[in-house]
Write a structure and sequence with these properties.
Helix 3 packs across helix 8, helix 5 packs across helix 9 and helix 7 packs across helix 12. The protein is globular. With 322 residues, it is mainly alpha-helical. It has one domain. It has 13 helices and no strands. It binds fe (ii) ion (FE2) (2 copies). The site of one fe (ii) ion (FE2) has 5 residues, from helix 5. One fe (ii) ion binds next to helix 5.
Length: 322
């Protein structure tokens, strides 16, 4: 009991000290003007479930390349979104805007379910004898050690590191919003017969990414991250994401039992799949990635909200969760 009291006192004292160190910007929480009020949704975590028992290894039929580009999401997101949840739980005590706090709770709930949903696909791979742990162990190290907490640092440096972590999450969320909007409007996957359950999972996730696309950015601005920190985080995240994706696709090729040994992904496979609308094309990325560097940018300027709301109304998994 004594230990519990001591821990509670210490936590309260630590939080107070830390809160005082943070200067927040009450005006920074997203656009408050009436014209954009419709963008503010109540973010809800939907308790979805997916059955992977019938999932073919190449769930984009006859398209190992497109399947493995999508598979990189399953490799990265379980550890990545757990990291988001931990960072945002740590940031919550410093938030002085009720609406933002509410958004952050919704964001945390949604990302926790996303992480579990993608873990379910990894369990299915393991059951099929496809061992992805050599790659996912590295991703876990990246998020838990390289980008994780630095408890031995001074409070001031811990504060700065938390702000850096939030800025990384915001930079990554720019991509999840772009990818979310893309998968919601990728009819090529319906036409080619991509596995229905996988498509629903990706679109439900994509729709929630579009729903909460501004939360991390608003949190970063509320905690007074300046333009340089915003840009610096994205300058790290963009090449890192590209590198992780290329390595992830190569890795999936190396463990794919249905491909002839030694088969390697080629850039021409990417351009071919992009032309067919099965993966996002390069121009789309160049255009929207550039947005993040524009002074005055806010994620509410990205599109897709209507698509997201419409999809969540018909998604089999989202409907079954109610
Ligand atoms: Fe997510
Ligand atoms: Fe997200």
């Amino acid at each position: 009991m004594f230990t519990a009291m001591f821990t509670a006192m210490f936590t309260a004292m630590f939080t107070d000290m830390f809160t005082d160190m943070f200067t927040v910007d009450d005006q920074a929480v997203g656009p408050h003007d009436a014209s954009l009020d419709h963008e503010r949704l109540v973010l809800e975590a939907r308790d979805v479930e997916f059955d992977w028992a019938e999932l073919p290894l190449h769930y984009v039929p006859d398209e190992p390349f497109s399947t493995h580009v999508l598979n990189v999401l399953h490799l990265l997101l379980p550890a990545g979104e757990e990291f988001f949840v931990e960072v945002f739980k740590k940031a919550l005590p410093f938030i002085k805007d009720d609406q933002l706090r509410l958004d952050m709770h919704g964001f945390i709930g949604q990302e926790a379910v996303h992480s579990q949903a993608h873990s379910g696909v990894l369990d299915h791979f393991a059951a099929q004898g496809v061992d992805v742990t050599p790659y996912t162990d590295q991703i876990r190290w990246l998020f838990e050690k390289l980008l994780g907490d630095r408890p031995r640092r001074s409070l001031r440096r811990q504060h700065s590191w938390l702000l850096e972590q939030v800025s990384f999450v915001s930079a990554i969320e720019h991509y999840t919003a772009i990818l979310g909007e893309w998968i919601l409007s990728a009819p090529a996957h319906d036409a080619i017969g991509t596995d229905r359950t996988m498509l629903d999972m990706l679109r439900w996730h994509g729709a929630e990414e579009v729903e909460h696309k501004a939360v991390a950015f608003d949190t970063m601005k509320h905690l007074q991250a300046g333009y340089w920190r915003q840009v610096r985080a994205q300058l790290v995240v963009t090449p890192a994401m590209l590198w992780l994706w290329i390595r992830g696709v190569r890795f999936m090729y190396s463990v794919d039992p249905q491909l002839p040994p030694g088969t390697k992904p080629r850039w021409r496979d990417y351009f071919r799949a992009a032309r067919r609308g099965l993966v996002p094309g390069p121009m789309r990325f160049i255009r929207v990635v550039g947005d993040y560097y524009r002074p005055g940018f806010h994620p509410s300027q990205l599109g897709g909200l209507e698509l997201a709301v419409d999809y969540l109304a018909v998604s089999p998994a989202a409907r079954a969760s109610h």
